[in-house]
Structures are given as structure tokens and as C-alpha cells.
Write the C-alpha cells for this entry.
Amino acid sequence: MVTEPVRRVPADESSHRLVRDMVLDRSSPVPLYFQVAQHLEAAILDGRLQPGTRFDNEVLVAEQLGLSRPTMRRAMQYLVDKGVLVRRRGIGTRVVQPKVRRPLGLSSLYEDLAASGQHPSTQVLSLSVEPASAVVAQALALPVETPVTVVVRLRSAADQPIARMANYLPHTVLTGIGDGLTESALEAYGLYQLIRGLGIQLHAADQTIGARSATAEEGRLLGERRGAALLTMQRTAYDDHGRAVEYGSHIYAASRYSFELSMLAG
Amino acid sequence: MVTEPVRRVPADESSHRLVRDMVLDRSSPVPLYFQVAQHLEAAILDGRLQPGTRFDNEVLVAEQLGLSRPTMRRAMQYLVDKGVLVRRRGIGTRVVQPKVRRPLGLSSLYEDLAASGQHPSTQVLSLSVEPASAVVAQALALPVETPVTVVVRLRSAADQPIARMANYLPHTVLTGIGDGLTESALEAYGLYQLIRGLGIQLHAADQTIGARSATAEEGRLLGERRGAALLTMQRTAYDDHGRAVEYGSHIYAASRYSFELSMLAG
DNA sequence: CAGTGGTCTAGACCACACC
DNA sequence: GTGTGGTCTAGACCACTGT
């Protein structure tokens, strides 16, 4: 028996064009699902796919792109995890807000400032080896009095002091490089950049953000009055094996700096 | 030709026992990959799987559990994303640190305090409808002067004031419930709990954390001296469709509160 | 070289939402 | 019902790591 072709509920026209014109390189080392995800994300960010746009169902889209369904699913799931798409069983897949999310992952103040074109500069106030205090030892899971490398830096942007940062590194981290950690290197690069350059994979970090009043000396250093509000942040960073790699205790001039976080629901 | 059976590099004994004893319920609505992930995570958290333990390769483990490789992969990938496992091509899969990660997702101060057994209490200082100021309008993406519901609360724990929280809700969010947002409800539950109870899916949030000095009035309210350091936090929360659902501007007594964040590398 | 995880395919069945 | 995403399977080939 002959019937009319099924009248599919159409997805938005814009997604049709986009999918039709998408070019994938099967010989590239970049995975197909990632190529697809990048194309889609770019289209969302530059407005070719507006928020609210609905996709065809994943089987169809996969077909149109010449991909298997699992591969297409993976591309979409990647964007869902990134917060760019929303999917609901029985409903469909839609584009959400193209908001630029800056998850503040394991970045450093230096990288943050550099990325926003603030021309950061660093002055190393001290670089030494000292026995670990109780707090430092606790944070790095070392016995008290274990020698650790201590670097104190003053971070500025646009010739204004922003933060005083004290970092503590266990010597196990520095074996094999020894003097890779020089004053000049520390003034040219962020600490995290140097650590990663040493082949250490940063994996996770615990942070505490608080506030207190500046002492007279801290005020002088940061160009604030005594008693001015300071932001404080303590951070312990861990590598793949769960070993504490770095502990930092930092103060920020609250009048010139704040933390911004974007997060997805959990 | 007959050869000796291949001498496999063995994984740790503890993982063998665990996998052998794992029971899966194929008739459960809980997905298999999730059941597996939960079993493994529980074993890691309670120490049956120590940090550093190495798994057999995923094909073997899948076999031992009577699962397909993709399903097993999915369970492991879930734990990798959660930061509990680390995988490296050519190397293997290992357990990392069982650190309790508290991602501080879209939780509220109320939920944080309640979870840590602090017996929080709330006092509604005001509940009204007011025209949106410039900042509020900007944060909620509304025209200036649009009427919004404003609730100001004082949050305490252990009879000590902790925070003053001002929240602004567009009326589009409240349609259909109207008076679900009462003073008594606000004093008994967290605001986010109430919003979720209204069937609204929280999706993402942008936050800014800063610090400043307390005014005399703020000091009185929070039991601090004038000029004491305050933590400040502004947050805009969005739903699935990217619509701003809530804006909050809060101050915290820094001597009694700080933010803790755990994060994975990105 | 052997062993590992990373990617991809082609299909199947199920649970949920809306009409 | 019909259409959607969610789960699961059985296999294949590839890329990277170490010996």
C-alpha cells in the first residue's frame, strides 16, 4: 500500500543549512565527534545558531553528516556537558545561551590577566628554601619543618599592584630541574605555566576564598590604606597521583580585583 | 603450535576481588554503567580501592562483569570526569586521591550550612515588589524599572549572623505560583530549593566574589565593627533556556565565613 | 613487539513526552 | 501512537606507551 511520505516535524532551517555545509576531515587526527562539536559551537558563538534553535533528532543529523549515531551523540553530549546544548528525552535538543563561560579552571592570575590584555608584570620579592610551617606542612601533606621552596611575588597590572602571592613547593616536585625556577623565569611566566612545563600534570585544586583587613605593611605594598578590605585565597594544587604539588597563600587588593566564576548546575 | 598461556601483567589484587564480587541488577532502572561507577566510587571512598591501584584493561574488566566494552568505558569515563580515576593511553587506569570534592555547584548557603550540620536559621528582613535598578535590570536582562520581587534575608548559624542576602526575581519566573514565595516558606527552605520546587531547572550561574569594608549599619546587622572586612558575592542564575531566573547580591561576615571550591583541571 | 586506552560503526531495545 | 533521547551490544581499527 502506498502512502504519502511521512511529514516530519521540521527542525529550524538554520540548523539544516549548517549541517548541510559542514565539512569533516576523516583523515585528520582530530576525532570526528570533536570536529562536529567545534563546528556547532562556533556556529552558536557567532550567532549562526541562535539560542532556542532546535535540532533534528540525532539519528537524522548523524545520517546527514554521514556519521554513526554514537559518534553524533558524543559530539552533542560534549556540548551538553559544556552547557551549550540542552537535551530532553522525548523533547529534543536545543541551543541554550551563548554565554562565554570562563570556568576559572586551574588558571593563574597571570594567565587571567594576560588573557584579558592587562599586561601583567611580576616582581619576585623573595625566593628561598625554608622549613615548612604547620599550615604549609598540613596543606602539602608533609612533616612539619620539611624544607620547601618559597617564592613571594608582587603581581601588578597597568602599573598598579594587584596581589601579593606566596607559593610553597615541595622539593619532590622540583627534582630533576633544580634551577628551572629562577627569578627571571618567575617574572616572565606564571608559576603554573612553569610547573606544567616541567612535565607535571595538574589535576585538581582546593581553594578557600575569604577576606580580612590589611595590615599597615600589606597596605603599603598594595597601595591601600591600613584596614582596607583584602581578598584572600589559599590554594593547594594536586597532580595526577593526588600528590600535593603546590600551596599558595595570596592577598588581593579588593578595590582592584575580584573573582569571577561561571558554573553549571550539578 | 602450542604455547604457554600469555603471562598478563596483573592488575592489583584488590581490584580483582572487587570486580568478582560486584553484583549488577539488569532489571533495575538504574543504568548499568552507573551501577558500576557507583560500586567503584564507593570502594574508592571507603578504602577498599586504595589510591594508585591499577585496573585490568577495560576489555578484561568488561568481560569479567559480563558487560560490553562501551558500557564499561562509560562507567570509567564517568569517574574520570569526576576526578576519581586517571586513564592514560598505553598506560592504564589508576585510582587517584579519594579527596572529597565539594564542587559548590549551584548550591545555596542554606544547603551548605544544613549539610554540615550547622543548624542555619533565616530571618526575612523584607519581601516586596520594587522597580528594578540599573544593576538589577542589567543582571536579569530586563528593562530598567521593571517590577521585580525583592527579598532580603539575614542568614545565621549557631545564633551568629553570617550573611545578608538580597535576591531579585523577575515576575515571569513567579507566574503560576504567585504566593508560593511567602515569608514562612523562605524562612524554612533555601531560595534555590523553592525555585526548583516550582519546576524550574537551574542550569548555570555567573558569580563574582569580592571584598569591601562594612558600613556602620552592615556592621550592626552582622555583628562586626564598622570597617570590618566583608566578603561580597553577586550571582545571576539561569534556567535551561538561558533566561535569567534570579539575581542575588550578598554580604558575608568574613570573620565567620569563607568560600571553598574544589576544581578539576581543564 | 605487546598492551593499553581512544575512536568509530551498525544495529537493537527501552523510557519518556506529547498528541 | 509517534518521535525523542537514553542505554546497551559486538565488533573493528587506530594511536600511544613501554620493552
Summary: Confidence is low (pLDDT under 50) at residues 1-8 of chain A.
